[in-house]
Structure to design on (290 residues):
């Protein structure tokens, strides 16, 4: 019986020893937990550009009998969200509480996460997300906790690109007021990680009720939500069981905004020209009216 790893993250040297095809699939399975949980072997094979058999062999290379066992392992891990203090303790232990090592750890972890976005399957998911969001009359960006600041930032970028946008950044019952105006013609861009906490579950339920598309940006989320998203964009938050790093999420979001601008360049440029006019008026470079 192959060993069951604590997390499906073997050393890079072990992955490099695999065939190029299996190594590529293993890296995809490592970087896209939510997609793995939500998809069948055939669906994963289509996303990655390989065969069902290669998906199964990659799961076995990670130490599992097959894909179902890997799915169960990932789903069980999502049941308990990582404790931020424990994640920081593990990270500080790994870097031996040395400043230089901490800096190197952060840079290397961010590099790995961004490189995962450069994989063909991840780029395909970004393109699919842009196609899902482009027809929307308004894009609502959901993110609470640490993701709230990202939600507000992306809302600003979308507005500058000529898109109607609003942040859904309230937690608890205050979120109900923000959801009240959700309507047909909208689209949801959701930033959600870990367990299916109540706020994200309600956002998904309301979006399904009104039949608006959902783009989910995540590294791990239970199948009950991931399977209801129209598009799942994988964005790793650093290394497993270590402190969360949001660099890849930011890269994915900015890539989507730039893609939306490219999808309607006239709208984006007109909005930015108007922004410059308003800035000039506020700065007093034009004569006052009156």
């Amino acid at each position: 019986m192959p060993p069951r790893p604590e997390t499906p993250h073997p050393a890079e040297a072990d992955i490099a020893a695999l065939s190029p095809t299996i190594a590529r699939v293993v890296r995809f399975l490592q970087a896209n937990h939510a997609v793995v949980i939500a998809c069948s072997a055939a669906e994963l094979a289509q996303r990655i550009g390989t065969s069902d058999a290669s998906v199964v062999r990659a799961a076995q290379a990670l130490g599992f009998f097959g894909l179902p066992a890997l799915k169960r392992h990932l789903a069980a891990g999502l049941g308990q969200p990582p404790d931020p203090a424990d994640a920081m303790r593990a990270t500080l232990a790994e870097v031996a509480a040395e400043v230089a090592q901490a800096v190197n750890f952060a840079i290397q972890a961010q590099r790995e996460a961004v490189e995962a976005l450069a994989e063909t399957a991840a780029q395909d998911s970004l393109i699919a997300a842009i196609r899902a969001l482009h027809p929307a009359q308004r894009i609502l960006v959901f993110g609470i906790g640490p993701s709230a600041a990202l939600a507000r930032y992306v809302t600003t970028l979308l507005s500058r690109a000529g898109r109607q946008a609003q942040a859904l950044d309230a937690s608890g019952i205050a979120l109900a007021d923000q959801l009240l105006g959700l309507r047909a013609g909208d689209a949801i861009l959701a930033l959600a990680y870990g367990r299916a906490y109540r706020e994200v579950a309600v956002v998904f339920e309301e979006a399904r009720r009104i039949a608006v598309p959902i783009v989910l940006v995540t590294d791990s989320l239970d199948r009950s939500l991931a399977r209801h998203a129209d598009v799942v964009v994988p964005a790793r938050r650093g290394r497993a069981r270590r402190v969360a790093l949001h660099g890849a999420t930011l890269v994915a979001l900015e890539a989507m905004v730039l893609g939306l601008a490219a999808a309607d360049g006239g709208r984006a440029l007109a909005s930015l020209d108007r922004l410059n006019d308003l800035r000039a008026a506020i700065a007093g470079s034009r004569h006052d009216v009156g």
The radius of gyration is 21 Å. The CA atoms of residues 8 and 62 lie 6 Å apart. The chain is about 60% helix and 10% strand. Residues 1-7 have pLDDT under 50 and may be disordered.
